[in-house]
Batch of 2 targets.
Target 1
Amino acid sequence: MQIAQASTAASTIRKKRINYDRVVAILMILPSLIAIAVFVYGFIAYTGFVSLTNYTTPKPDFTFVGLNNYLQLFSERRFQENIRNLIVFTGLFLVTCLLFGLALALLIDSRVKGESIFRSIYLFPMAVSFIVTGVAWRWLFTPGDLEPTGLNLLFDRAGLGFLQSRWISDSRVWPDIQIPGIKVRLMVPLAMIPVVIAAVWQMSGFCMAMYLAGLRGIPDEIKEAARVDGCSEAQLFRHITLPLLRPITLSAIIVLTHISLKTFDLIITMTGGGPGNKTEVPSLYMYELRFSQFNTAEAAAVATILLLVVSVLVVPYLVYNRRVQEVEG
Amino acid sequence: MSASAAPVAPAPTVHRHNLRRRFSRLALYAVMIGLALFFILPVYLLLITAFKDFSQVSLNRMWDLPTSLSLESFNRAWNGGAGTTGMRGSFVNSLLVVVPATVISCLLGSLNGYVLSKWKFPGSETLFTMILFGMFIPYQSILVPLVQVLAAIGLYGSLSGLILTHVVYGIPITTLIFRNYYAGVPKELVEAGQIDGSDFFGIYRHIMLPLSAPGFVVVAIWQFTSIWNEFLFGLIITNDPRLRPVTVALQNMSGSQFTQWNVQMAGALLVAIPTLIVYIFLGRYFLRGLLAGSLKG
């Protein structure tokens, strides 16, 4: 008690100092906040604004045209193809990457010797640029005109000729479905499959790492208890492991989807969007609109569409994550 | 044998069980090695091609091992010649961007993480979430104004402009990693510092910084790897070919009809080497950055 009274004066001084420190703390984070406010939110707002103007030539023209640029885009056959390609790419990439990543994690988690070597091999593509990945896989997937090259040559030598394909030169869409009123052929552009394989090669290690962290986080007691209760390994996986991995799957879906929606470097290196725009996605088209055609307004419209799609996914996730953190303290 | 007749009966089942177990183990390893081959395949192709001399390069022999190790392709990829622009200059550019951008990112991230974990103020959690959003935006949605603003402040087409861009868009991830890292530093340590009369910077320097080494390593590796591998900003901000970073130079080389494909492969290897070295020696920290990117690390 005595000590407490004696230190009252000191504590008021300390309080003042702490208040002063609070101001310093805010001042220190201010530059970053301003940078984010300008470079993220300000820029997004500007892009949204430009997408509503007539800025379609190199000469700035900020006449308000409403949603004209969006209507124009959606009526273009090329943009419709972009959307189809993006949906196909994202869907195939997401599902393959998650399943493949989970499989890798389960394999690594099965108490094998040399676990860390396998893990390092499965994960190393994550450290490499998409451009490097694109250069290497483009050569693997170049079918060869007269004689087989790349993977085709490898299959040929191995007596697996039936696996040969036109890969990135394949301009077919399969199964070719046409619906009256929609200009594009629906379903899978076959040239997209090699791009998906390269993307999975690069990113499945990330899924593996996430799932592995999740698997290692499941307490052994839970599994033991289930086994004691007569749970088979398959049931254990189905009813205990998978549900416990659900939050990880959610995080992985968010990260992979946002990466897949903005994919640019891998596709530009592997196919350049070809053959015949069969692998072109909105991010490539946006680049061409802005930097080759100088149609800034339409480029901004493409960008805004991408941003809206990502936001629909990410904003609820960020809000949810914040709530969880608040609950967990 | 007859003396031990009694225990013979259960033996075959144990034996069969063991055999099955051993077989499934063998199958497991076969699958894992097969998968490892899938991951190594492109690197194998890069290696065997890049080390061939020009006389050995033909498409129908692309899977053959080089008969002798030649550095011709690397030499051409690095120094250029015969219609190929060498990548040496772009390596210097990339280093000139990566090093300062990584250092500044680390300092900013650490400061932000310190404030957002130990000096929370009303609304700081909301601001943090708003900063994090910047991590997920497709950069297409900021390209148009980015070019205009950089041009207006005289940084368009310069390495400084590229550094600024990488630092700004690195703020969310670096802040996130440091904030989560500092959240593990006990509140009592900070309070003890305050009782000792340390101010904001005193606590930062004498309590937080000495504990921060692993955080700095994780963030530095993450920023180094992402900036080195980044393509879009490099492509758009450096319009002058002499200022290209490595990824843009490699993409240009691979799109050129004048560059033989063994040279492209050598170029791809050269670009991959720095980040692969970091991965090989500091993979553990790389993994931590990777997992932090999914928010809950």
Target 2
Amino acid sequence: MNTLLKIENLHASVGEKEILRGINLEIKPGEVHAIMGPNGSGKSTLSAVLAGRETFTVTEGSVTYDGRDLLALSPEERSWAGLFLGFQYPVEIPGVSNVNFMKAAVNEQRKQRGLEPLSAAQFLKLMREKMAYVEMDSSFSGRGVNVGFSGGEKKRNEIFQMAMLEPRLAILDETDSGLDVDALRIVAGGVNKLKRPDNAFIVITHYQRLLDYIVPDVIHVLYKGRIIKTAGKELALEIEQKGYDWLIQDSE
Amino acid sequence: MVPQFITNPEGRLRIALEAGASAEYVVLQDAAAPEGETAYEISLAEGASLKMVFLSLGGRLLRNRLRVMLEGRHAECDLAGICLADDQQEMDYEILLTHEVPQCKSNQLFKNIVGGHAVTRFNGLIKVVPDAQQTEAYQANHNLLASETAKAYTQPQLEIYADDVKCSHGATIGRLNPDELFYLRSRGIPQAEARLLQQMAFCNEVLDKITSTEIREKMQERVENRLRQLGNFC
């Protein structure tokens, strides 16, 4: 099958500091890739660069998404092309309600695909249906985006947005951080419901725990801006038991 | 009382609310007059309640001077406004609000979006006389700069001569939050629309004060159209 995402020798910096130092990664439709690694290894930087965050400068390498040069696209163009980032720290936007936010997002995606905007009734129906994916109460729709949400509610809201936008490639940046077991189960359940043969996921996590619920095809270990190990799902358990030191020693 | 809707009042306007009276005004200042200065003289008797929402959207030079006297106990005055200034526009608010007697409440919330070479000035003074105990008085002026050359001056002031009061004032000058903008864009909302959402969110705190749904929706539309018109509001 065709490659959905191909990252080649990707280097990225913030200011003078190089954070990604030559990433290579290839993802095909239907796959789930997990990226693990100690703090400061560049996991969140990689997701931010893929989503188009301007704080980072790509200094070398390329990213091809669905045959296109991903790095040439604006953040909104990446979204229209089917890329989705689940934020580690979702932003609170007072004064913009969840429902207006999602209406603007969904109708813009439709416009880009040459479709008519949804009617108010169709939209509310879609919203109710997708909120059920993550057991979100309908009272959330009228509230400001993430305003006053608990950590778990914010993460559920990310998965809800993902369900609304039905991306082809979703990058989930530490979606499990700060979640209790129930919230983790709900969030992972939402992801599993959205898995299809034609889409793919990159799951960034510190813990094996999440990977019990979202089972990856491949695990990559990122360290100092490079992937130092790629293996099957059993690697997560080994990391849980032995930590990262043995991998780091091997790589150095 | 039925909400009143005033377009570009010129010159001098005197509003005197008798005991127990209440009124709400929405004042729209658009491009109809190139230059305008309006002086409002306002007095509130016991238990009177006044709300005024100003929308300064057009005109090269707009100057609003308000003198508010809270003269009877339990009077309440709620003042709010939005300035959308662009190009060479200048918009000034000068407010002197005096708590003359105890147990009155006042609130001021003025928000400006300033682009181009425009200038806004907010100069507000709350005065609480020695006898005016148990006063509650709040004042806030928030400014969003939308260009490198825009200027917002703000001068919130309190003069309190009573000792049993709750008063606060504050001012901010800033820009649209880039983290919010990136979050909105990452969901496929184009940059210009995302900015508009952020700017409307900023303005809605004032617009939400308008009680009449019909007038509020009309005014939201006016504000949104004005923001759209000004593509360089970013």
